[in-house]
Amino acid sequence: MKSLFAKNFLIYAAVVIVGFSILGAVFIYQVDKYSDAETQSKLENTTARAVQSTSIYLQSSRITGWKSEFNKSYLISMTQLAIDCGGMIFVGDSEGDLMFIATSDGCYTQENGVIPAVAADAVLQSGVYRDNSNFFGYLSTSCHIRGSAVQSGSGTEAMVFVAIPSAATDTLFFNLSKSFTIIMISVLLLTLLATSIVVRSTSKPLKDMAIAAKTFARGDFSVRVPLPKRQDELYELTSSFNNMADAVENMEETRRGLIANVSHDLRTPMTTIGGFVDGILDGTINKDDQEKYLRIISDEVKRLSRLASSMLEVSRLESGEKSIHPAVFDVSEMVRRIIIGFEQKLTDKNIEVTLDIPDVLNIRADRDGIFQAVYNLIDNAVKFVNQDGHITVFMAEKGGRMQCNIINSGESIDPERIKYIFDRFYKGDTSRNRNPSGSGLGLYIVKTVINRHGGDIGAKSADGVTEFCFNIPMNM
């Protein structure tokens, strides 16, 4: 079960890792994209305002004199812009010489500094400069940089560069990645716990089934697996396993009963045959009585033959070796011919027979199978009907199905025994003396034939009347 736990956990963990990785990547990408857009917007706005302030300052400086006096409002304005954007502002003249550097600490004049030539040339040529660097060594960290020209009627008078540190974006990316990693690890731990609980609840019934299967292999079919509390697929599996165990136990009991019944049914006539043959051979039985005992031996041999034929028939039916061949025939005529075949036995017992059947009732089914089923039921009724009793055969079409009821008077069948009457080798009388000629397979064969035709069969017995009834589709 450890391997089951490991497999489940690895699958769940892979799903969590992949899911969080995709989710984190998409989320961080969107946040990074939004943050970059915000930074670029801030750069653009700050640069535009710095260009505007510088243009106003330059116009004022023509009146007061270039580099003579500093406009305090300009210095304050540039410092405030640096504070608002959280970065630095570089102001240079059209030659690329630095005039001012504004930071959050203030705006300061520059006498010897120069704007990097690449940046200055870009602004002079296109009016705009964009980069993400340390501004060629002017900055201690990487920054988002935007440069723009300060235009006048005569052309470019100055240039402004705004630099905003990219560390904030990097920090946001790191914090988001860290948060997603922590969440993913937490979910993995929860997954580990959940997998442990689920696998434990799943593996226990499986373990119990494995133990039960080993017990079955030793021949003990009494073990059953406790049903889980949750009615899910595992509940159905456990229930099916227990049903299978019941079926196997019943099959084992049937097998043992089959061996016992066959042994009994074979031993009794063989003992009789052996005893009479030995009596004839050693002279114990007089010659005058030999014909009588030879007839008994003949009857016992016929009984063995019927038993062998019935067992062979059951084997063919259960294995599917005997296939169904549907054909249209008159089942009413079939019943009449079967009754005629029992005429002598009916006469001997003075039985009144009532046929409540249509003149013609055509069905499409396996003729031999239906003949055998009806014959066995009528034979059963003739065997157990009481002297001077009556037998009724009812047959009709109902809802696209053929209904057949065979009723006989006589001794009722015990309610506790009637539910086993269609089992193999079952005989209603436990002493096995009421019908010594029967094999106990006739009604089992009837049930098998009817079921193979898609029909149902049942029996009821009370107040000296026993009734067998079955129905099959009219057209199979």
Cα-based radius of gyration, to the nearest Å: 52 Å
Oligomeric nature of the chains: single chain
**And the CATH topology of the largest domain?**
Beta-Lactamase
Shape: rod-shaped
Number of helical segments with 4 or more residues: 11
Q: Order of strands across the widest beta sheet?
A: 3-2-1-6-5-4
Topology:
Elements lengths: L1 H63 L7 H14 L2 E6 L4 E6 L2 E4 L7 H10 L1 E6 L9 E10 L2 E11 L1 H51 L15 H49 L5 H33 L6 E5 H11 L1 H6 L3 E5 L5 E5 H18 L5 E9 L2 E9 L5 H4 L23 H11 L3 E7 L2 E9 L3
Parallel strand pairs: 8-10
Antiparallel strand pairs: 1-2, 1-6, 2-3, 4-5, 5-6, 7-9, 10-11, 11-13, 12-13
Helix pairs in contact: 1-2, 1-4, 4-5, 5-6, 6-11, 7-9, 9-11
Fold and architecture overview:
The chain contains 11 helices and 13 strands. With 476 residues, the protein is an alpha+beta fold. The chain has 3 domains: 2-170, PAS domain (Beta-Lactamase), CATH 3.30.450; 270-303 and 309-318; 323-473, 2-Layer Sandwich (Heat Shock Protein 90). Helix 4 (167-217) packs parallel to helix 5 (233-281) and helix 5 packs antiparallel against helix 6 (287-319).
Short description:
By secondary structure, the protein is an alpha+beta fold. It has helices at 2-64, 72-85, 117-126, 167-217, 233-281, 287-319, 331-341, 343-348, 367-384, 415-418, 442-452; strands at residues 88-93, 98-103, 106-109, 128-133, 143-152, 155-165, 326-330, 352-356, 362-366, 390-398, 401-409, 456-462, 465-473. The two termini are 50 Å apart.
